[in-house]
Structures are given as C-alpha cells and as structure tokens.
Amino acid sequence: MIYFDNAATTIPYPEVLRTYQEAAATIYGNPSSLHYLGSQAKRVLDASRQQIADLLRVGVDDIFFTSGGTESDNWALKGTAFEKERYGRHIIVSAIEHPAVKESAEWLGKHGFTVSYAPVDKKGLVDLETLSGLIRPETILVSVMAVNNEMGSIQPIQAISELLADKPTITFHVDAVQAAGKLPVSDYLTDRVDLASFSSHKFHGVRGLGILYKKSGKRLNPLLNGGGQESNLRSTTENVAAIAATAKALRLVSDKQTAAVTRLQEMRDLIYETLSSFEDVLIFSGKDRQSAPNILTFGIKDVRGEVLVHAFEKHDIFLSTTSACSSKAGKPAGTLLAMGIPVKSAQTAVRVSLDDENDMSDVEQFLTVFRQIYADTAKIR
Fold it and tell me: DSSP state, 365?
C-alpha cells in the first residue's frame, strides 16, 4: 500500500499509540477530582500542555484543548465574534479557507455579522492589497490559513501580520492545521497572531483532539459551558490520554521536521517534474517555495478527479480529490475556483499529500502507475 492522502489524516506513530494506550489504561482519573487519581491525571495534563506550549514557543496558559481542528476554528471565529460584537460586526476571511472557517463565517453572516472574502491570485495566495482595502473601522477579525489544504499554497502570514501591526483591535486568527511539522513555527505563529488552530491527527497524533492557541490577554467567548475546565473557557472533561499522545506526536514531528521537509521536497519535486512532461496533465499547485513541501494537486485533461482516485486505488495507491472534508460531495475544489480555474478543469483535480513515512520507492511506484493510467485514459481525452 502507498498512502498519499496525509493532508486528510496521517497514520499515528507507533510511539503515539503506545502513549495513548498507556495513559488510557493507567491515568483514568478525572483531572478535576480532588483525590490522588485526579491529581495524577492533572499532572499528566499539565505536563502535556507545557510540552506543547514549549514546542510552539508560546506560554503554557495560551494552550487550550478541543475536539479537533473544526472545533478550534469554530471557537476562534464564533468566540471572537460574540466577544467583540459591541465593537464591530465585520469579519474578513480568505476565499480559500477550510470549510470549518468558511462555514463558520457564513453562519455568523446569518446572525448579524458582515463577512468579506479576501481573494487570492493565480497561485492561490491572498492578495495583500485587496485584503488591506477590505479592512473597516468596525472590522474585528481577520482569519487566514497558514497552508491551504487543497493546493498547498503557503499564505503570507508574516506580511499579513505586518499589515495588522497597527490595528490591535483586530483579532488575527490562523488555521495552522496543515502547517505543524511542515513549516517553521515562526512562519505561522508570529507575535501578531492572536489565535491559531491545530489538529492532532494531521501530525501523526490521534483523532478527536485539537488545540487552540489563544494569546494571553485576548478575550474569547466560550462555546461550551459547564464544569469550567480549560480556564472556564471550554467545559468538558479533558481527554488526558489523547492530550498526552498529541504532545508526543508534536514532539516527534518537530524533532524530525528539518530532515523530513528536505525529503518531502525532493519527492514532490520529482513528481512535479515527471507530471509536467505529459501534455494533458494540469498541475494546479505551485513549484516554488510558496507551496507546501508535501502537497501537489494535478489533473488529467477531461478525466474527472474521482475517476483517477479509484484508478489509483486499484493499485493500492491512496490519494484524494482535494479536501477530504468535501470530496464525497463531488464538488470541484473551492480553492481552484477562487484561483480562477475553470470548473471543467477544476473537476479533474486530485491531491497527492506526502509524509515523512513515504520514500522515493513510493514515488517511483506512483509514477509507474500514473503512466499506465494516463495511457488507459487516452481514449476519453
């Protein structure tokens, strides 16, 4: 099997699963309980939070645990909107955000807020000049993802941070779900970023556990009320085993990052160069370093993306039609459409998303199978 769908979810590291199993079996107290078992769970929870904070180079009190990237994004947008609505009701998100951000913004648009969408250029990068022009006195939130999950375009977070440097009343949220382990932390978690979302299963952790970074001093309305966990901002009993496993996963990917990114880039470059030599191949992702080292989206002219996915699947090669969260809907990638790609071309798109567990033999086998599929589909082009 060759697994090239890592932007959808990664395979948990064996060490991560061992940490989860051990913690689930032995650290079963409620961290809020007063007895010894509760104190034991609280120590593991606190140590895991500290490790994650250290790896992200933020304060330990800035880390909050959620059920995943979707909840973190929802909380960032809705929590900010309702906390700051007395100061303004205008929100800006990029046109290529993950549905967790875009649909949260649309929901807010139905509840009294005004939403503007910052366009992107042909490379899938946010247009800074247009973004600047969208800002109003009543703007309370700007949300731009660090790495686009469909194309892999790396957004200019540093430049946006500079744009917002003299606008302290605007909360800046970054969806960093695809960035952890792929980009230097300083590239997406600048001093100007107020909120950032992460998801454990995107970096070899477990599903059902997310992180929201909230800069100290920034106010956020809770989405969940109850027992007062997470500093009374996110009530529900903490999933200690998953949190411990997430801390282990983030440490492992951070330790491997420099070497892994080099290998990922080499594999991606080989795929890019090979596919570029085929006349009817459409490559949508960029080649330069404004693209993530692990994501490459392409298509074959007049061949729908789902046809390619199933053709590769017959050879035990697994990839996806761009975002796994919306692929079953059969819709073309929203990012491609925002980039100005015609619908017919966008419908051909499939995404290869690599991981440090892949190697050149996987790439060579993928390219061998691709050549066969390309030849087999000639009659419909």
Answer: H
Torsion of CA 277, 280, 292, 251, to 10 degrees: -90
Q: What is the pLDDT along the chain (381 residues), one digit of tens a residue?
A: 999 999 999 999 999 999 999 999 999 999 988 999 899 999 999 999 999 999 999 999 999 999 999 999 999 999 999 999 999 999 999 999 999 999 999 999 999 999 999 999 999 999 999 999 999 999 999 999 999 999 999 999 999 999 999 999 999 999 999 999 999 999 999 999 999 999 999 999 999 999 999 999 999 999 999 999 999 899 999 999 999 999 999 999 999 999 999 999 999 999 999 999 999 999 999 988 789 999 999 999 999 999 999 999 999 999 999 755 555 555 567 899 999 999 999 999 999 999 999 999 999 999 999 999 999 999 887
* Active-site entry in 55, 128, 270, 325: 325
125 is catalytic: no
CATH of domain 14-251: 3.40.640.10
What is the model's pTM?
A: 0.94
Topology of 2-8+257-377 in CATH? Aspartate Aminotransferase, domain 1 (3.90.1150)
Give the span between the Cα atoms of 112 and 89, in whole angstroms: 7
Grouping H, G, I as helix, E, B as strand and the rest as coil, residue 204 is coil
CB 149 within 8 A of CB 7: yes
For the chain, the structural domain boundaries read 2-8+257-377, 14-251
